[in-house]
Design brief:
This protein has about 180 residues and is mostly beta strands. It is built from two helices and twelve strands, in the order βββββαβββββββα. The chain has two domains: about 90 residues, RimM (Elongation Factor Tu (Ef-tu), domain 3, Beta Barrel); about 70 residues, SH3 type barrels.
Amino acid sequence: MGKRLTRKEDCFYLGKIVSKYSFKGEVLLKLDTDEPEQYEKLESVFISLGNNLVPFFIEKSSLHRSSLLRVRFEEIKDESDADRILGSEIYLPLEFLPRLSGTQFYYHEVSGFTLMDSVYGNIGTITSVNDSAAQALFEAEKEGKQVLIPINDEIISKIDRANKTVYITAPEGLVSLYLDTE
């Protein structure tokens, strides 16, 4: 059994190595999370080097100020080692994400879910979430047509994970822009 290389699709972005902390090779990670304390006791992380995600083991770590994690990696012994990973992105496997419930969700987990509107019923299957614009959007597809629905707490009424369905009330007139709803 060969060890499968970890793919970025199986991971989530946790943060970035922003600076060196000591001459012993310690570094500071800037965590992209509202709850940095959840990541204080990690045993290892994946560091993005070139096109690979490489596992690094953590000897010790502690929160530094609010969203910085001060880390000593087992493999990083001095400043020149630390220079090699400076600026690199840090990833963790998806199963490390805390489970969300209710109408809270991770963008990756709703891919493939049905988008069910309170007026129009099934308005498509979610293909992805586009968060590159100011407003995150559900991108869905129905009968070859693309449907874009802005994501906010007001429109999402329920997420049924067991049946892979997101229940929404789309803003007035939006669905008919995309689909022939007559």
